[in-house]
Amino acid sequence: MTDNKDREIKELRLQLKADRARVRQNQDKLARFQALELDLLAATGVAQLLELVLSHYRTEFKLDLVTLALVDTDYELRRVLADGGINITEWPSLQLHEDAAILDELTEGGRQVVLAPFDNVVHGGLLPALSKDLASVALLPLLRGETLIGTLNVGSIDGQRFVPGTATDFLERLAAVVAIALENAFNGERLKRLGLIDPLTGVHNRRYFDQRLHEEVVRGQRLQQPLSCLFLDLDHFKCINDTYGHHLGDVVLQEVAATIRSQLRGSDTLGRLGGEEFAALLSQADAATAVEIAERIRHRVAALSLADADGLNVTLSIGVSTLEQQPRGADPLLIAKRFLERADQALYRAKDNGRNRVEVDDGTLSFAVSAERE
Question: pTM of this prediction?
Protein backbone atom coordinates (compact mmCIF):
# COMPACT_ATOMS: atom_id res chain seq x y z
CA MET A 1 0.00 0.00 0.00
CA THR A 2 2.77 2.42 0.99
CA ASP A 3 4.70 1.55 -2.15
CA ASN A 4 1.67 2.37 -4.31
CA LYS A 5 1.20 5.75 -2.61
CA ASP A 6 4.89 6.55 -2.98
CA ARG A 7 4.70 5.67 -6.66
CA GLU A 8 1.59 7.83 -7.14
CA ILE A 9 3.23 10.75 -5.34
CA LYS A 10 6.34 10.36 -7.51
CA GLU A 11 4.22 10.29 -10.66
CA LEU A 12 2.27 13.35 -9.55
CA ARG A 13 5.51 15.23 -8.87
CA LEU A 14 6.84 14.30 -12.29
CA GLN A 15 3.55 15.43 -13.87
CA LEU A 16 3.65 18.71 -11.95
CA LYS A 17 7.25 19.27 -13.06
CA ALA A 18 6.27 18.59 -16.68
CA ASP A 19 3.28 20.95 -16.38
CA ARG A 20 5.48 23.71 -14.98
CA ALA A 21 7.95 23.19 -17.84
CA ARG A 22 5.10 23.49 -20.37
CA VAL A 23 3.85 26.67 -18.68
CA ARG A 24 7.35 28.20 -18.82
CA GLN A 25 7.66 27.10 -22.46
CA ASN A 26 4.32 28.68 -23.34
CA GLN A 27 5.23 31.87 -21.50
CA ASP A 28 8.49 32.03 -23.43
CA LYS A 29 6.66 31.36 -26.70
CA LEU A 30 4.08 34.03 -25.87
CA ALA A 31 6.83 36.56 -25.12
CA ARG A 32 8.54 35.79 -28.45
CA PHE A 33 5.24 36.01 -30.33
CA GLN A 34 4.47 39.36 -28.71
CA ALA A 35 7.94 40.69 -29.62
CA LEU A 36 7.44 39.51 -33.22
CA GLU A 37 3.99 41.12 -33.38
CA LEU A 38 5.39 44.47 -32.22
CA ASP A 39 8.14 44.25 -34.85
CA LEU A 40 5.60 43.41 -37.57
CA LEU A 41 3.34 46.32 -36.69
CA ALA A 42 6.33 48.68 -36.53
CA ALA A 43 7.71 47.64 -39.95
CA THR A 44 8.35 50.72 -42.08
CA GLY A 45 8.08 49.07 -45.49
CA VAL A 46 7.27 45.94 -47.44
CA ALA A 47 10.91 44.78 -47.64
CA GLN A 48 11.36 44.95 -43.87
CA LEU A 49 8.05 43.15 -43.37
CA LEU A 50 9.03 40.34 -45.75
CA GLU A 51 12.32 39.94 -43.91
CA LEU A 52 10.49 39.62 -40.59
CA VAL A 53 7.89 37.15 -41.87
CA LEU A 54 10.03 34.96 -44.11
CA SER A 55 13.37 35.02 -42.31
CA HIS A 56 13.19 36.26 -38.73
CA TYR A 57 10.04 34.26 -37.88
CA ARG A 58 11.55 31.07 -39.31
CA THR A 59 14.82 31.51 -37.40
CA GLU A 60 13.29 32.70 -34.11
CA PHE A 61 10.83 29.79 -33.89
CA LYS A 62 13.16 27.14 -35.38
CA LEU A 63 10.99 26.39 -38.37
CA ASP A 64 12.25 24.60 -41.46
CA LEU A 65 10.32 26.49 -44.12
CA VAL A 66 8.11 29.58 -44.19
CA THR A 67 6.40 30.89 -47.32
CA LEU A 68 3.96 33.71 -47.95
CA ALA A 69 1.30 33.40 -50.65
CA LEU A 70 -0.59 36.59 -51.57
CA VAL A 71 -3.57 37.08 -53.86
CA ASP A 72 -2.72 39.48 -56.70
CA THR A 73 -5.65 39.34 -59.13
CA ASP A 74 -4.85 42.50 -61.09
CA TYR A 75 -1.04 42.39 -60.74
CA GLU A 76 -1.13 45.49 -58.53
CA LEU A 77 1.09 43.93 -55.85
CA ARG A 78 3.70 43.11 -58.50
CA ARG A 79 3.71 46.74 -59.63
CA VAL A 80 3.89 48.03 -56.05
CA LEU A 81 6.80 45.70 -55.27
CA ALA A 82 8.62 46.67 -58.47
CA ASP A 83 8.10 50.37 -57.78
CA GLY A 84 9.54 49.85 -54.31
CA GLY A 85 12.68 48.29 -55.80
CA ILE A 86 11.72 44.78 -54.62
CA ASN A 87 12.64 42.07 -57.12
CA ILE A 88 10.37 39.12 -56.37
CA THR A 89 12.89 36.71 -57.87
CA GLU A 90 15.09 37.53 -54.88
CA TRP A 91 12.32 36.34 -52.55
CA PRO A 92 11.75 32.66 -53.51
CA SER A 93 9.49 32.16 -50.48
CA LEU A 94 7.08 34.85 -51.70
CA GLN A 95 4.31 33.71 -54.04
CA LEU A 96 1.80 35.86 -55.90
CA HIS A 97 -1.38 34.12 -57.06
CA GLU A 98 -3.72 35.44 -59.74
CA ASP A 99 -6.75 34.24 -57.77
CA ALA A 100 -7.57 32.92 -54.31
CA ALA A 101 -9.01 29.58 -55.45
CA ILE A 102 -6.21 27.26 -54.26
CA LEU A 103 -5.70 29.19 -51.02
CA ASP A 104 -9.44 29.24 -50.38
CA GLU A 105 -9.67 25.50 -50.93
CA LEU A 106 -6.74 24.59 -48.68
CA THR A 107 -7.93 26.76 -45.77
CA GLU A 108 -11.63 25.89 -46.12
CA GLY A 109 -12.61 29.33 -47.26
CA GLY A 110 -10.05 31.04 -45.05
CA ARG A 111 -12.03 30.15 -41.95
CA GLN A 112 -9.39 28.32 -39.96
CA VAL A 113 -5.75 27.52 -39.42
CA VAL A 114 -4.98 24.14 -40.98
CA LEU A 115 -2.58 21.73 -39.24
CA ALA A 116 -1.73 18.58 -41.19
CA PRO A 117 0.91 16.02 -42.11
CA PHE A 118 2.83 17.29 -45.13
CA ASP A 119 1.48 15.95 -48.41
CA ASN A 120 3.51 17.02 -51.42
CA VAL A 121 0.53 16.67 -53.75
CA VAL A 122 -1.66 18.89 -51.54
CA HIS A 123 0.86 21.28 -50.02
CA GLY A 124 3.83 21.16 -52.41
CA GLY A 125 2.68 24.23 -54.35
CA LEU A 126 2.64 26.43 -51.27
CA LEU A 127 5.56 24.76 -49.48
CA PRO A 128 8.09 23.47 -52.01
CA ALA A 129 10.18 21.15 -49.89
CA LEU A 130 13.47 22.22 -51.49
CA SER A 131 16.20 20.36 -49.58
CA LYS A 132 14.01 19.76 -46.53
CA ASP A 133 11.92 16.64 -45.97
CA LEU A 134 8.89 18.30 -44.45
CA ALA A 135 6.67 16.18 -42.20
CA SER A 136 4.01 18.60 -40.89
CA VAL A 137 2.57 21.93 -41.99
CA ALA A 138 0.46 24.82 -40.77
CA LEU A 139 -1.48 26.98 -43.22
CA LEU A 140 -2.53 30.33 -41.72
CA PRO A 141 -5.25 32.21 -43.65
CA LEU A 142 -4.69 35.97 -43.85
CA LEU A 143 -8.01 37.84 -43.75
CA ARG A 144 -8.97 41.48 -44.02
CA GLY A 145 -12.63 41.71 -43.25
CA GLU A 146 -14.19 38.77 -45.04
CA THR A 147 -11.61 38.75 -47.81
CA LEU A 148 -8.82 36.17 -48.00
CA ILE A 149 -5.71 38.12 -49.04
CA GLY A 150 -3.23 35.25 -48.72
CA THR A 151 -1.79 32.54 -46.51
CA LEU A 152 1.27 32.25 -44.29
CA ASN A 153 2.56 28.71 -44.74
CA VAL A 154 4.84 27.00 -42.24
CA GLY A 155 6.59 23.65 -42.54
CA SER A 156 8.56 21.43 -40.16
CA ILE A 157 10.55 18.21 -40.51
CA ASP A 158 9.10 17.27 -37.12
CA GLY A 159 5.90 15.31 -37.69
CA GLN A 160 4.62 16.28 -34.24
CA ARG A 161 5.14 20.02 -34.69
CA PHE A 162 1.76 20.70 -36.32
CA VAL A 163 -0.69 17.99 -35.33
CA PRO A 164 -4.38 18.28 -36.24
CA GLY A 165 -6.54 19.02 -33.21
CA THR A 166 -3.89 20.90 -31.20
CA ALA A 167 -4.44 24.50 -30.09
CA THR A 168 -3.89 27.21 -32.73
CA ASP A 169 -4.35 30.34 -30.58
CA PHE A 170 -0.83 31.67 -31.14
CA LEU A 171 -0.98 30.97 -34.89
CA GLU A 172 -4.41 32.59 -35.31
CA ARG A 173 -3.21 35.74 -33.55
CA LEU A 174 -0.02 35.80 -35.64
CA ALA A 175 -2.06 35.47 -38.85
CA ALA A 176 -4.26 38.42 -37.83
CA VAL A 177 -1.24 40.61 -37.09
CA VAL A 178 0.56 39.64 -40.33
CA ALA A 179 -2.59 40.48 -42.34
CA ILE A 180 -2.84 43.92 -40.70
CA ALA A 181 0.88 44.58 -41.16
CA LEU A 182 0.72 43.58 -44.85
CA GLU A 183 -2.25 45.86 -45.49
CA ASN A 184 -0.49 48.77 -43.76
CA ALA A 185 2.78 48.20 -45.61
CA PHE A 186 1.19 47.94 -49.07
CA ASN A 187 -1.04 50.95 -48.41
CA GLY A 188 2.05 52.92 -47.49
CA GLU A 189 3.74 51.86 -50.74
CA ARG A 190 0.60 52.81 -52.69
CA LEU A 191 0.65 56.30 -51.20
CA LYS A 192 4.30 56.73 -52.14
CA ARG A 193 3.53 55.39 -55.61
CA LEU A 194 0.87 58.05 -56.20
CA GLY A 195 3.55 60.74 -56.11
CA LEU A 196 5.71 58.87 -58.61
CA ILE A 197 3.17 58.14 -61.35
CA ASP A 198 2.26 60.24 -64.36
CA PRO A 199 -1.53 60.67 -64.01
CA LEU A 200 -2.24 60.71 -67.76
CA THR A 201 -0.35 57.61 -68.90
CA GLY A 202 -0.04 55.62 -65.68
CA VAL A 203 3.71 55.13 -66.14
CA HIS A 204 6.33 56.57 -63.83
CA ASN A 205 7.09 60.26 -63.81
CA ARG A 206 10.43 62.05 -64.25
CA ARG A 207 11.11 62.11 -60.51
CA TYR A 208 10.85 58.33 -60.20
CA PHE A 209 12.82 57.72 -63.41
CA ASP A 210 15.73 59.88 -62.23
CA GLN A 211 15.75 58.04 -58.90
CA ARG A 212 15.81 54.63 -60.60
CA LEU A 213 18.45 55.81 -63.08
CA HIS A 214 20.83 56.63 -60.23
CA GLU A 215 20.06 53.33 -58.45
CA GLU A 216 20.62 51.28 -61.62
CA VAL A 217 23.92 53.02 -62.40
CA VAL A 218 25.17 52.34 -58.85
CA ARG A 219 24.01 48.73 -59.13
CA GLY A 220 25.73 48.33 -62.50
CA GLN A 221 28.97 49.70 -61.07
CA ARG A 222 28.83 47.28 -58.16
CA LEU A 223 27.95 44.17 -60.18
CA GLN A 224 29.65 45.17 -63.45
CA GLN A 225 26.51 44.38 -65.42
CA PRO A 226 25.34 46.16 -68.60
CA LEU A 227 22.59 48.76 -68.47
CA SER A 228 20.77 50.21 -71.48
CA CYS A 229 18.55 53.23 -71.95
CA LEU A 230 15.92 53.90 -74.60
CA PHE A 231 14.96 57.52 -75.27
CA LEU A 232 11.61 57.49 -77.10
CA ASP A 233 9.81 60.39 -78.75
CA LEU A 234 6.55 60.47 -80.69
CA ASP A 235 6.98 61.71 -84.24
CA HIS A 236 5.02 64.81 -85.32
CA PHE A 237 3.05 64.89 -82.08
CA LYS A 238 2.30 68.61 -82.39
CA CYS A 239 0.63 67.90 -85.75
CA ILE A 240 -1.49 65.20 -84.08
CA ASN A 241 -2.69 67.69 -81.48
CA ASP A 242 -3.31 70.41 -84.06
CA THR A 243 -5.16 68.11 -86.46
CA TYR A 244 -7.15 65.84 -84.17
CA GLY A 245 -7.32 67.87 -80.96
CA HIS A 246 -5.71 67.53 -77.55
CA HIS A 247 -8.18 64.90 -76.36
CA LEU A 248 -7.06 62.47 -79.05
CA GLY A 249 -3.49 63.54 -78.38
CA ASP A 250 -3.94 62.35 -74.80
CA VAL A 251 -5.38 59.05 -76.05
CA VAL A 252 -2.33 58.61 -78.30
CA LEU A 253 0.01 59.16 -75.35
CA GLN A 254 -1.90 56.62 -73.26
CA GLU A 255 -1.91 54.00 -76.02
CA VAL A 256 1.76 54.49 -76.80
CA ALA A 257 2.73 54.30 -73.13
CA ALA A 258 0.75 51.07 -72.72
CA THR A 259 2.35 49.62 -75.86
CA ILE A 260 5.88 50.46 -74.72
CA ARG A 261 5.22 48.98 -71.28
CA SER A 262 3.84 45.77 -72.80
CA GLN A 263 7.18 45.14 -74.55
CA LEU A 264 9.37 45.71 -71.50
CA ARG A 265 10.46 43.14 -68.95
CA GLY A 266 9.37 43.15 -65.32
CA SER A 267 12.79 44.44 -64.21
CA ASP A 268 12.74 47.40 -66.63
CA THR A 269 11.64 50.96 -65.77
CA LEU A 270 9.55 53.21 -68.00
CA GLY A 271 9.08 56.91 -67.35
CA ARG A 272 7.39 59.83 -69.07
CA LEU A 273 9.93 62.62 -69.02
CA GLY A 274 7.50 65.24 -70.28
CA GLY A 275 5.28 65.98 -73.26
CA GLU A 276 5.66 63.19 -75.79
CA GLU A 277 9.05 62.00 -74.46
CA PHE A 278 9.54 58.68 -72.69
CA ALA A 279 12.61 56.86 -71.45
CA ALA A 280 13.14 53.23 -70.46
CA LEU A 281 15.91 51.66 -68.38
CA LEU A 282 16.75 48.09 -69.36
CA SER A 283 18.63 46.40 -66.53
CA GLN A 284 21.22 43.76 -67.45
CA ALA A 285 20.61 44.43 -71.14
CA ASP A 286 23.49 44.77 -73.58
CA ALA A 287 23.27 46.86 -76.76
CA ALA A 288 21.97 44.00 -78.92
CA THR A 289 19.17 43.22 -76.46
CA ALA A 290 18.28 46.90 -76.18
CA VAL A 291 18.06 47.33 -79.95
CA GLU A 292 15.89 44.21 -80.24
CA ILE A 293 13.47 45.57 -77.62
CA ALA A 294 13.51 49.05 -79.22
CA GLU A 295 12.66 47.66 -82.66
CA ARG A 296 9.87 45.57 -81.19
CA ILE A 297 8.40 48.67 -79.54
CA ARG A 298 8.74 50.70 -82.73
CA HIS A 299 6.89 48.09 -84.80
CA ARG A 300 4.10 47.69 -82.23
CA VAL A 301 3.52 51.45 -82.04
CA ALA A 302 3.48 51.79 -85.83
CA ALA A 303 0.80 49.08 -85.94
CA LEU A 304 -1.52 50.92 -83.51
CA SER A 305 -5.05 51.51 -84.74
CA LEU A 306 -6.99 54.24 -82.93
CA ALA A 307 -10.74 54.74 -83.03
CA ASP A 308 -11.96 58.12 -84.32
CA ALA A 309 -8.62 58.75 -86.00
CA ASP A 310 -8.87 57.48 -89.55
CA GLY A 311 -5.64 57.94 -91.44
CA LEU A 312 -3.57 58.64 -88.30
CA ASN A 313 -0.24 56.82 -88.33
CA VAL A 314 1.57 56.98 -84.99
CA THR A 315 5.33 56.39 -85.04
CA LEU A 316 8.24 56.62 -82.62
CA SER A 317 11.86 57.57 -82.95
CA ILE A 318 14.16 55.84 -80.46
CA GLY A 319 17.70 56.48 -79.30
CA VAL A 320 19.68 53.74 -77.55
CA SER A 321 22.71 54.00 -75.28
CA THR A 322 24.39 51.23 -73.31
CA LEU A 323 26.78 51.07 -70.39
CA GLU A 324 28.75 47.89 -70.98
CA GLN A 325 31.36 48.47 -68.29
CA GLN A 326 31.19 51.16 -65.67
CA PRO A 327 34.30 52.47 -63.90
CA ARG A 328 33.93 51.67 -60.21
CA GLY A 329 35.44 54.91 -59.00
CA ALA A 330 33.46 57.23 -61.25
CA ASP A 331 30.73 59.54 -59.99
CA PRO A 332 27.39 57.77 -60.59
CA LEU A 333 25.58 61.10 -60.99
CA LEU A 334 27.95 62.08 -63.79
CA ILE A 335 27.62 58.67 -65.43
CA ALA A 336 23.81 58.88 -65.27
CA LYS A 337 23.83 62.37 -66.80
CA ARG A 338 26.09 61.39 -69.71
CA PHE A 339 24.25 58.08 -70.17
CA LEU A 340 20.93 59.85 -70.70
CA GLU A 341 22.52 62.53 -72.88
CA ARG A 342 23.97 59.88 -75.21
CA ALA A 343 20.55 58.25 -75.61
CA ASP A 344 19.07 61.68 -76.32
CA GLN A 345 21.75 62.37 -78.95
CA ALA A 346 20.98 59.02 -80.61
CA LEU A 347 17.29 60.00 -80.62
CA TYR A 348 18.07 63.24 -82.44
CA ARG A 349 19.96 61.27 -85.09
CA ALA A 350 16.87 59.10 -85.52
CA LYS A 351 14.82 62.27 -86.07
CA ASP A 352 17.37 63.71 -88.49
CA ASN A 353 17.56 60.45 -90.44
CA GLY A 354 13.85 60.31 -91.22
CA ARG A 355 12.04 59.39 -87.98
CA ASN A 356 10.31 56.07 -87.18
CA ARG A 357 13.68 54.43 -86.66
CA VAL A 358 16.12 53.28 -83.98
CA GLU A 359 19.56 54.81 -83.70
CA VAL A 360 22.31 53.53 -81.39
CA ASP A 361 24.84 55.63 -79.51
CA ASP A 362 28.13 55.10 -81.32
CA GLY A 363 30.39 56.21 -78.47
CA THR A 364 31.94 54.33 -75.57
CA LEU A 365 30.35 55.93 -72.57
CA SER A 366 32.54 54.39 -69.90
CA PHE A 367 35.65 55.71 -71.72
CA ALA A 368 34.12 59.16 -72.08
CA VAL A 369 33.34 59.33 -68.37
CA SER A 370 36.78 58.10 -67.42
CA ALA A 371 38.40 60.69 -69.69
CA GLU A 372 36.36 63.49 -68.16
CA ARG A 373 37.54 62.47 -64.70
CA GLU A 374 41.14 62.64 -65.87
Answer: 0.56
